[in-house]
Here is the input.
Amino acid sequence: MNHQLSIEFFPPRTPEGVEKLRVVRRNLAELKPAFFSVTFGAGGSTRERTFAVVKEMAAEGLDAAPHLSCIGSTRDNIREILADYRAAGIRRIVALRGDLPSGMAEAGEFRYANELVEFIRAETGDWFSIEVAAYPEWHPQARSPREDLQNFVRKVKAGANSAITQYFYNADAYFHFVDEVRSAGVDVPIVPGIMPIGSFSKLARFSDACGAEIPRWMRRKFEGFGDDAESIRAFGLDVVSELCEHLLAKGAPGLHFYCMNQSELTREIFRRLA
Here is the structure.
């Protein structure tokens, strides 16, 4: 595949999960992705797990892009994290607002992702390539599509190099978003986020929580399979592979896979695209 591929992990919670992720990472490294991103929770323990995964990957010579969410953080705290990543040779960051941790009343010194992007640029110049999030079907907390678009434009103009979208199954939403962004004077690459489908029930839960639409025709088809896991997997692979082909054929700059710390589905989709 001639387009840029990237893959997202989340930091495992257990020693078994850490070992499993090492195996998954080796399998997916064979696809030669441009980078692996690693999600980041606002709580201290999740941050430590993100650090550990990212530093191990960097030591293996892989391009690791830690997520960095700013909600609930201070400038000193973010400055320290940036220094740690720089010392580890990390050159790419996914800069996010994030969600306020439960029990925390104050947003901290950063309210929005554009403020984090500005801070990273002010502190570290061009050391980091900065990715930001994009929402073709709009952020679930946005008051309107117009406001969401303005927020995105602010993030990019603060110094982002490119964007990764929330996953979606409606290609028209992505292309409409790209057109809107280009009309607003933003020309950075906007890479579609891709969620392989292994379990429809899990996908439905995720999608309800994050605002990603599962088209009605897909829902009905999945529901019709009941507990037939093999048919769900086969249909999911077909749908997502065709979506990827369509996106790339129509000019998407690459694909970012939310692999859920599994390698099999991402490898199969990639094989079909090769």
